[in-house]
Amino acid sequence: MRLCALMLLVSIFLQNSVLAQSIAIPGLPDEYSLPHTLLKEAMNRQGMTPSFPHTNSGGNISDNRMQQDILDGKLDVFWSMTSTELEEKFTPIYIPIYRGLLGMRIPLVKQDNVNMFINIRSLSQLRSFKAGSGKTWPDTKILEHNNLPVVKTLKYPNLFRMLEGDRFDYFPRGLHEPWQEIINNKELNLAVENNILIRYTAPNYFFVNKNNTQLAEQLTQALNQMIRSGEFSRLFFEDGEVKSALNKANVNNRTVFEIDNPTLSKNTPINRKELWFDPLEVQGNK
Q1: d(CA 218, CA 48)
Q2: Chain CA centroid to CA 119, Å
Q3: Number of other residues whose CB lies within 10 A of the CB of residue 24
Q4: Is position 110 within any domain?
């Protein structure tokens, strides 16, 4: 009887130990986006296993829903382009997931408009076109701060149909994003515009609940280990979206418009050069 009771106690302890290491993240178990890949590797280094509470929703969850789920304890980690408001509301892991590519924006347009901006040489000229963006996205505040007209909607999937329906002229996307989005919306006649790049500093971070300081410390430690070992860089360059962007974006032949990001916090790790990658600098078109 004592042996059985002891074995039961050990079993309960092990189950609770495993549960304590289960970390709820957005998306689906088989996703292989760069945030998923980096997060899973960081968690593995800390003895954690991911769980996916949004599996039944197909992984297509709005930023507002993810933020609320963090506050309610239904999620432990999410990732987003940062802003001062987000950094006040949650604890950011100050390591840019896409190493700065998110702030290098190339336009998604209708297929007939791939050379829409071929003669655009100034921001004042660009301001005669309307961009599409999410109503609550930090990008929207950045574009509007720079007096670029924006048509907004709450739901990300709506933006692609709105673009094809001429509700706006272009949809600025992070350098790594548009080719997969075209595949995901293959029933629409969309393409990447050939001629311009809008650039601002816009890191994409992992965020956790303000009360979960231990998780923040563990993820920070693991990600910094990955940076020092070269694993972070290896996973970045092996990512399918990143490889596609660097092969197809043709950044050295684009007119670059530098704009300000008023939502950037003073804690942005600008001086940690190992955290950033600039394809313009690499290709000698700084």
Answers
A1: 10
A2: 30
A3: 17
A4: no
Beta carbons within 8 Å of 113's beta carbon, 6+ residues apart: 169, 170, 191, 193
- Among residues 126, 120, 248, the alpha carbon closest in space to that of 178 is found at 248
**CA distances for 68 relative to 23, 61, 71, 193, 207, angstroms:** 16, 11, 5, 35, 12
- Residues near 18 by Cβ (< 8 Å), separated by ≥ 6? 49
- Tell me how many domains the chain contains: 1
220 — phi, psi (to 5°)?
Answer: -60, -45
Q: In this structure, is residue 214 part of a structural domain?
A: yes
> Which residue did the predictor score with more confidence, 282 or 34?
34
- Number of Cα atoms under 13 Å in the Cβ half of residue 182: 18
Return the CATH number at 218. 3.40.190.10
**Domain-located, residue 268:** no
Structural domain of residue 12, as residue ranges?
2-98+204-246
**Looking at the domain assignment, is residue 47 inside a domain?**
yes
The reply to whether the predicted model has a pTM over 0.85 is no
DSSP state at residue 112: G
In 127-230, alpha helices (H):
138-145, 158-164, 178-184, 213-229
What is the rounded distance in angstroms from the CA atom of residue 34 to the CA atom of residue 31?
9
**Greatest distance between any 2 Cα atoms in the chain:** 84
- Beta bridge pairs of residue 151: 132
For the stretch 169-201, pLDDT in tens is 999 999 999 999 999 999 999 999 999 999 999
